[in-house]
Specification:
This is ShlB/FhaC/HecB family hemolysin secretion/activation protein. With 558 residues, the chain is mainly beta. It has five helices and 28 strands.
């Protein structure tokens, strides 16, 4: 049973237990909850296949139409475009022929130019034809033959009901963007491969879409061990991650991850967490829901006896993302989320009421992916904030009795992956930049950006971090295959991070960190691994961290 404890007593106990007297500092509880969330996110990434890259690249936008010089030719004064409802953009392009002198070659060039314009827009089976006619009177007649879907059929064993997942239906005009979106949604399932082909239908202009399924194992599991924890609650962490393809036959995905410290024999400290994620594709959208919880406890020396300091958090959210634009080289998506998060801390089963929180909030973002040949650029800008009128307990901030729990921050994430070769040696450069900026005068410390661990600025052990309301970190990694070990690559990384803010600057030892890392990662059949060694390049005086930090992650897939 947990009891309430007065704020001044809580402050005294926290001072003894953690050496912290200021509630809005980035304390151990904040660091532990962030570490748990980052670990759960990493486990989910290990099970999630990468976003499917478009199989077909369409031509870029075409040049203006210019008729070839020929004789005889006839000046076009009037244009009739039949069956072009819904294609006003194409009719506008066709009007470029007005005022130009066309003959046989010109008519063929115009037809070819308009068909290339259709292809550039993704209408891969639609066609413009120039029927037999006389253009001596200056009138030109064109006919659009839109390629429509007459049938959707499957080959092989599908994973569920296609209707909700597909962004098209029978009767729609065939667009390459819709086909790419469908392939992307189909390949979200880790154990399911699908190919899509177009075959002529029974009537002119009709197209059948054939989806060929190559089903695999519907469930996947990954047992892993790493040293991503903290010394206070268990450095070594064991985890089980599992996914199930299409549990409700909607091409949906269910992910479960469980983790805990691997020090089973120790009762004086420990940590564990669990997360459940479900997502279902809906055409150009994806609906997702998740629930998670984490707990930890540690024993610390008190004034007259040892104290058990413990914390727990629980949260759930529902989100929707939607692709609003895509072509062969670009993909733009909007996303939104509503969330609730509760957290509690206790000392010897006595609750610290100044740290109790029960918050409701929102998150919205705009994401962009751009393909540059074999390179991929990803970016996202987001807005996150609280909804105090719907929150039960915003918590307290020392020295801010009027704080009502309202906060808002903007964030930005960018990453770039570029494969290249030096002579015959293939290499890959990965860089990522993440930052945030508080838009309110006060920001609760659990939303601060922290640097100095394997998830931000590498080369530091994560036992102590720098954190602030505002900040950014930049990771850079150069990877090269290691031929003596099949399936392995070695990498070198150099990172930098900066944090600050009105609240954080009052007690920060410094504002920036830089670190280096070298490592090896790879796989051999069902075994996957990553090992690294790193250290600081620059850190504030008095900032405690090991001169060399080793990390490892090992996993076995089922």
């Amino acid at each position: 049973m947990a009891y309430k404890i007065r704020p001044w007593i809580a402050g005294a106990l926290l001072c003894m237990a953690l050496g912290k007297a200021n509630a809005e500092r980035f304390n151990f509880d904040d660091r532990e909850q962030q570490r748990s969330a980052q670990h759960q996110e990493q486990l989910l990434q290990k099970l999630t296949p990468p976003l499917a890259q478009p199989d077909v690249r369409l031509p870029d936008s075409i040049e203006d139409f210019l008729a070839p010089q020929e004789a005889p030719c006839f000046r076009i004064e009037h244009l009739v475009f039949e069956e072009a409802a819904g294609f006003s953009w194409l009719e506008k392009k066709a009007r470029q022929a007005l005022g130009q002198c066309l003959g046989g070659q010109g008519l063929h060039a115009l037809q070819d130019w308009l068909n290339r314009a259709l292809l550039a827009r993704g209408y891969v089976v639609s066609r413009v034809v120039v029927p037999e006619q006389s253009i001596q009177d200056g009138q030109l007649r064109l006919i659009l033959m839109p390629g429509r879907i007459s049938r959707i059929r499957e080959e092989g064993q599908g994973a569920g009901w296609l209707a909700l997942m597909l962004p098209f239906k029978v009767g729609d005009v065939v667009r390459q963007q819709d086909l790419d979106q469908a392939i992307e949604q189909l390949r979200r399932l880790p154990g399911h491969q699908a190919e899509m082909s177009l075959v002529p239908g029974e009537q002119p202009g009709d197209t059948e879409i054939v989806i060929k399924h190559t089903p695999g194992q519907r469930w996947h599991a990954l047992f892993s061990l790493d040293n991503s924890g903290s010394q206070s609650t268990g450095k070594q962490q064991a985890a089980l991650s599992a996914s199930l393809d299409s549990p409700f036959h909607l091409y949906d995905v269910l992910n479960l991850s469980l983790s805990r410290d691997a020090h089973w024999h120790r009762l004086d400290y420990g940590s564990d967490s669990a997360a459940l994620n479900w997502s279902v594709p809906l055409g150009y959208s994806v609906l997702s829901m998740s629930v998670n919880r984490s707990r930890y406890h540690q024993t610390v020396a008190g004034y007259s006896s040892d104290l058990v300091y413990a914390g727990r958090s629980f949260g759930y959210d529902i989100g929707l993302s939607r692709v609003v634009y895509r072509d062969s080289n670009n993909r733009i998506a909007l996303d939104g989320k509503l969330w609730r998060r509760t957290s509690h801390s206790e000392i010897d089963e006595v609750e610290i009421d100044v740290q109790a929180r029960d918050m409701v909030g929102y998150e919205a973002g705009l994401g962009v992916r751009h393909y540059l040949g074999t390179s991929v650029l990803d970016g996202r800008v987001g807005l996150k904030g609280s909804l105090p009128t719907h929150s039960k307990e915003p918590g307290e901030m020392a020295g801010e009795p009027e704080w009502d729990g309202r906060y808002q921050l903007v964030s930005a994430d960018f990453s770039f992956t570029a494969p290249f070769q030096v002579g015959a040696l293939p290499m890959r450069y990965d860089t990522s930049l993440r930052g945030q900026l508080s838009r309110t005068a006060l920001l609760p410390s659990y939303e601060w950006l922290s640097i100095g661990n394997r998830y931000s600025v590498r080369g530091f052990d994560g036992e102590v971090t720098l954190a602030g309301e505002d900040g950014a970190y930049w990771q850079n990694t150069l990877s090269v295959p290691y031929p003596p070990i099949p399936g392995a690559e070695v990498y070198l990384g150099l990172d930098y991070g900066y944090v600050g803010g009105r609240q954080a600057d009052d007690f920060l030892l410094g504002n920036d960190l830089a670190g280096w890392v070298v490592g090896m990662r790879g796989s051999a059949k069902a075994f996957r691994y990553e090992f690294s060694l790193g250290g600081p390049v620059a850190k504030p005086e008095g900032f405690g961290s090991s001169h060399l930090t080793g990390t490892f992650w090992m996993g076995v897939s089922l």
